[in-house]
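anyone seen this seq b4? input:
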Amino acid sequence: MNGWTGKLLRVNLTTRETGVESSEKYFGYVGGKGMATRILYDEVPAGVKPYDPESKVVMAVGPNSGSSAPCSGRTTLCFLSTFTKGNAVVDAHIGGDVATQLKACGYDALIIEGASDVPVYINVKDDKVTVEDAAALWGMTTTETTAALCDKEGTGTTVMSIGKAGENMINLSCVITGVAHCAGGGVGAIFGSKKLKAICLYGKGGTQVADPKRVLALNNYVMSDLMGSNNNHVVPNTPQSFSEYDSPRSRWTGHPGLTWGAAPGGPVDTGESAPGQPTLMGYRCQKAVFDHGMIAEKYTTKMIGCTSCPVRCYGAVSLPQLKKFGRNTTHANTCLGNNPYGGLMKAYTDFEEEGDGKLTASVYSAILADDLGLWDNYGELKATLNYFMDNGYMEKILKPEEYAEIDWSKRESGDITFIADILTRVCDKNHTLSTLAQGAYFVDKQYHDLIGDDYINSAALTLWSTIGAKRHHGNECAAQVGMLTNVVYNRDGMCHTIVNITGSGLPYHLQRNIVEERFGKGCLDMPKNYTPMNEAKARFAKFGVVRQALHDSFTLCNWVWPMTFSPRKERGYKGDLSVESQYFSAITGKETSEEELDFMAERGIQLARAMTVKTYGTRDMRHEHDVIPEYAYSTEPDVPVFTEGTVKMEKEDWQLALSMFYKEFGWDENGAPTRETLEKFDLKDVADDLEASGLL
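predicted toks r here
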């Protein structure tokens, strides 16, 4: 079989029975996210809660996984949300080697069901699958667990594990692989509820592709002509000889004179890596410097990333300053993972040079959070902790003895052990601080009498919806388009399709001309100079989420794909949005157009929306789900909406945006799928189910 393996692995933790089934009936959902969502729909009845034994976690990959395509090393996990309103279906994504290993073991998906009454781990070695005792691992950090299992199961084993946060069923907890690659969304707590400490994967198989030469030709085309750097930023951060443009916002940060300063054997100059030089792509993204500033250059050892990724967006640093705190002195991370909780501090104490105090706090907190398996929810947990500290609420919610045992002066003095004092207690289910890691929706419910309406609606928290979902690129990114890309999710959207365009580094007029050619005039506003909603914006927003769903199903990294733009001037900087379908055709042997593949991806979106309607028990998604907080309308109160310099939104215009977006997806005015739309996507059984529940 080409692309897919055709097999699902099922592991029941209650009975410790395992079994293999066919995955072919799910091929119409592509794989990954689409496949996992359908399995949850088929097998987890409405009304089941995330910590119930009937709750399941489905881990799935797609036909592209293991194919060698650039940035194809992603895995999707689907489950019930632990932290947002309704506990509706969500998905999380993990990198490292997981996708390749699951495929090498011979499976398109792993279905985890039931619950053990003692700690266990799942061990998959090709077709040998066992549920093993994990009593000795319970209480270990994720790093310790990984080391112990690699020692036991052999070098080359990929380990996914939970830490203290997951063990204690803290809503905001994650699964970690490769020390710092994270699947968030609360899945770590579901593992903990099932007493599942870890999953080990080791396979010697591979991915069969229909046309290997065509796949290799596509790889060369993408890396030579289309791909830039992280987030597919297609111009360098600084002026370079090969580039007509540059942008300080670009993540194409490598340039002559910028080094991996702590590389073994001496500094390595990142140099120039012009288009057409795929073997130099790994030097383009000096992410530690992008995230931490120039102070990070002398401590950077190299860049790392996921299997099959030439971009390498994880900055590996070696920081001797951490010896003082008994922590590992090396770590690698990216984006928010590079500073999940360093911002809890009010001051930083430098150690050896100016600025290294803040860097040390960032890396210290990243190592600590990853070891604990504590998820930051795209910055929400840090924002919540700061909100309660800055507004004097800690003394009011903590027991007197809990408050007294914390040295709050460390926050002001720059003693970064304050971060450990807070986070270790957050992960203790018996400590009141753990209530602040329930997720914003549940924090608001528990403490509303104390904090009022301001918390859930505050710009400090920056949610996209009052269901408790964090904004993961919203109105600050292409106005209504950016905010609309969050609507189809029950957590933060994790959708980078649009921000990859607006942040590409190309001048606005080039961006606009290229995207207007596809979506129509007025689809892309100038940054901070927004116009009222129009239908072209609705088409653009739909494209954003459909491609994200495709990437999470195929699988591909949405931090880099799609190839909307190109770094090549001779192409007019225009990318190629048909490349995904070309890969699908080459890998599976089923010639599939761009439109057909997008249709398959959208099928998963339609199904997930129907599941949310059923979970909420109402069709009124407009007023129960797609509600953006007040800060989006009230920011910069003296600046009128739709004037230059502001990203604020207007309430009536948002309702118009929703109506246009719903129309693009074939949903009714409430934002719920219609029978006609569901049947169009071969989801008649779902339509019948909604109708039987009075929700169609």
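Residues 471-562+593-692 form a domain with the Aldehyde Ferredoxin Oxidoreductase Protein, subunit A; domain 3 fold (CATH 1.10.599.10). The mean pLDDT is 97. kinda curious what u guys think
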